[in-house]
């Protein structure tokens, strides 16, 4: 049996979980599911309004279900502790690869026969995240009365100590190498020009606002609005819905608005958006005004980092190779950390940094601190610059 997306599964009675050895024995189950797939759907339904979370949780649940029925020949509701230990090793190297891993070069749609559950082996951090999600799944199914016990409960590890400081950020030299690489991008053809201005706008947005990728693809240009501050200065802001469905407003500095106008003109739009405009913050190349996917934006960022890494390697020094490797390990989230690091290095008010990045608090006492928005905008404008 080849692995297929969960919505296409057609399992026999001995694999669908109706007679799973770990099924709950209570007389009052809290969900109507009779089969493992229905139980997973009931669990996933709780996250239907949060696409990023839904996709991530479905991916991990789907991988385990498919592995269980394909590799072990047993339903998910029959898994025991030892099975999950084997599965954790499988995550580090899904074999046979042709059976479980997508062909390199592109991400196949779930409806395509080339689709596979994995893009490659999972890094240790991704393995831990997968187990955390699956532990949550099993715990919920036990609480719902569908399962008798949680086979992962014996594997719970002590929580790791928090890192003393953020290390996943780009220092000034690496950040300058990234900007130089973007500035050197070709723009001879219309497509090259569109791509150049899109990349430039994306990196401006990520760095100047500290936004997450999910926030970039999940918000629109209609969130920009102008306001006259207490000193009579007209300033732009960007209202977004961020992590946890929380709304926050970000200072749209003069640099950011210049890049926005450039990007919009290149796409045949007016320099500044109208209130309530539905245009996504980032657009694909071409005339379609639709939001880009998370994976497509991550790919753009990784391509820029790779290009900058190759430029650094051209230096030929040993330390250059090490720095290039660090850049290749970077992700879009590193730009958020880089933005925060730069804000703090420029001696910005800690409360302003907190509010710009959408953090809950600076410390346990930060609930007594309040940030005045006009002052936050000025502080950001003066101390957090991109300087293409």
TrEMBL record:
<dbReference type="InterPro" id="IPR050090">
    <property type="entry name" value="Tyrosine_recombinase_XerCD"/>
</dbReference>
<dbReference type="GO" id="GO:0015074">
    <property type="term" value="P:DNA integration"/>
</dbReference>
<keyword id="KW-0233">DNA recombination</keyword>
<dbReference type="InterPro" id="IPR010998">
    <property type="entry name" value="Integrase_recombinase_N"/>
</dbReference>
<dbReference type="GO" id="GO:0007059">
    <property type="term" value="P:chromosome segregation"/>
</dbReference>
<feature type="compositionally biased region" description="Basic and acidic residues">
    <location>
        <begin position="369"/>
        <end position="388"/>
    </location>
</feature>
<dbReference type="Pfam" id="PF00589">
    <property type="entry name" value="Phage_integrase"/>
</dbReference>
<keyword id="KW-0159">Chromosome partition</keyword>
<feature type="domain" description="Tyr recombinase">
    <location>
        <begin position="165"/>
        <end position="382"/>
    </location>
</feature>
<feature type="region of interest" description="Disordered">
    <location>
        <begin position="1"/>
        <end position="30"/>
    </location>
</feature>
<dbReference type="InterPro" id="IPR011010">
    <property type="entry name" value="DNA_brk_join_enz"/>
</dbReference>
<dbReference type="InterPro" id="IPR044068">
    <property type="entry name" value="CB"/>
</dbReference>
<dbReference type="GO" id="GO:0006310">
    <property type="term" value="P:DNA recombination"/>
</dbReference>
<feature type="compositionally biased region" description="Polar residues">
    <location>
        <begin position="19"/>
        <end position="28"/>
    </location>
</feature>
<dbReference type="InterPro" id="IPR002104">
    <property type="entry name" value="Integrase_catalytic"/>
</dbReference>
<keyword id="KW-0131">Cell cycle</keyword>
<feature type="domain" description="Core-binding (CB)">
    <location>
        <begin position="38"/>
        <end position="142"/>
    </location>
</feature>
<keyword id="KW-0238">DNA-binding</keyword>
<keyword id="KW-0229">DNA integration</keyword>
<dbReference type="GO" id="GO:0005737">
    <property type="term" value="C:cytoplasm"/>
</dbReference>
<dbReference type="GO" id="GO:0051301">
    <property type="term" value="P:cell division"/>
</dbReference>
<keyword id="KW-0963">Cytoplasm</keyword>
<feature type="region of interest" description="Disordered">
    <location>
        <begin position="367"/>
        <end position="388"/>
    </location>
</feature>
<dbReference type="InterPro" id="IPR013762">
    <property type="entry name" value="Integrase-like_cat_sf"/>
</dbReference>
<dbReference type="GO" id="GO:0003677">
    <property type="term" value="F:DNA binding"/>
</dbReference>
<keyword id="KW-0132">Cell division</keyword>
<protein>
    <submittedName>
        <fullName>Integrase</fullName>
    </submittedName>
</protein>
